[in-house]
């Protein structure tokens, strides 16, 4: 998120097993920190060509590229030592084609050109200029029949050039010589002078070259760095969000210190989420900055950022669920459901981590891979589980508070419920927009605004966290929303698993069970008297 966060057991000191898993994961990641993965460098490792119509092609990459910046004479003199400053380009480096031995042996050793491979660079708006569509033909390669009626050459890819648009599709040609099995393209740099979504295809028309494979790499660069055009705004956004978390953290820390004697356990969990969000956004900013300046990204930093994102996403959802369950407000512990929480959190963490890794360490094209769909579905289903559990728990918590007539807590939870309802409504609307956006833009022509989709989820998570910080802010009188033994709650769970070290005794001992059964035998009148007396006691405390 989007840029985006990770889920883990953040329930505190009573989760030793989960904590050990987290430590082991981080130790493993530290060993990976010296490895590197490609960034805006598209690498090809003995890739095969695919047949289409009467041609064979290989998709070499696609990215959103901005036009090169115009430079004055002074700028040219200043940047002589750095000629790529302000330039947008695609550079071919060590691109090699290897045909089969059988294909090479069929050729004449004395012949200079025995096989043609072309590199076609086109902006997505010019896609109709490739092939014979303007000649009422589905062919991509020029045939003798088409050559008679047009200016195309037999054996070459058909490109309809527009003399009024010099920035149209570009063609680079490379030839096999004699019986050579290998062909290496010379290092070439193609400058981009028009902003758009660019595609690179390697193509050949000769059926005798079937079985040819490609290796090597191409480097793509925007005027301000190596970040793909779709990702470039995310670096600025990550920096701004890091600053926003820093501001929230400072305000929260001041309140935390001011009322440190009245801190409840829930405040520590909120502090952890703020800290994770701050570190997550800072890591993503530095990861994007490194990507932009070097063209490659250290695997260690990227995996740390991805992992921290998944952890923060998990913990944020756990925090929402804990608050909805009334943890620290109407119940001192989560009881036997703790194990269910941990299981759901770990499952979500694994699914979210896998999705984030594919998105950030997989294909770097500005084009969504099909594998992403299969990883999105588990995350979406788990998010639905969280939402259902959260609102179901909120409903039960509100019902209990109404029965007990705890007006201060009831008002607090009503505000929290309204905020969550608004966020869910916004999420549904945004999901609809995202589906519409992807359905109407299959070729990423709207790549310049695509960054707002992951940015929205990051911003929404921040807003929800701010709402929780406001509603549960530390104060000199936390009894308005803190759990009180005197107004003890009837738990659905008979066994209690404490999540904190506060020493609050959980319902479970024999005396409390007997006392609870006795309360259940009270008459309606006794309930009324008890409720009134409880309200009076609560009003005194407030």
Automatic annotation (TrEMBL):
Compartment annotation: Membrane
Bilayer-spanning residue ranges: 21-42, 198-220, 232-254, 266-286, 301-320, 332-351, 371-391, 412-431, 451-473
Sequence ranges assigned to domain GOST seven transmembrane in this UniProt record: 233-478
Membrane topology qualifier: Multi-pass membrane protein
GO cellular component: Golgi apparatus; membrane
Listed InterPro entries: GOST_TM (IPR053937), GPR107/GPR108-like (IPR009637)
Superkingdom of this protein's organism: Eukaryota
UniProt entry keywords in alphabetical sequence: Membrane, Signal, Transmembrane, Transmembrane helix
Keyword Membrane: yes
Protein name: GOST seven transmembrane domain-containing protein
Species this protein is from: Cannabis sativa (Hemp)
Lineage, highest ranks first: Eukaryota, Viridiplantae, Streptophyta, Embryophyta, Tracheophyta
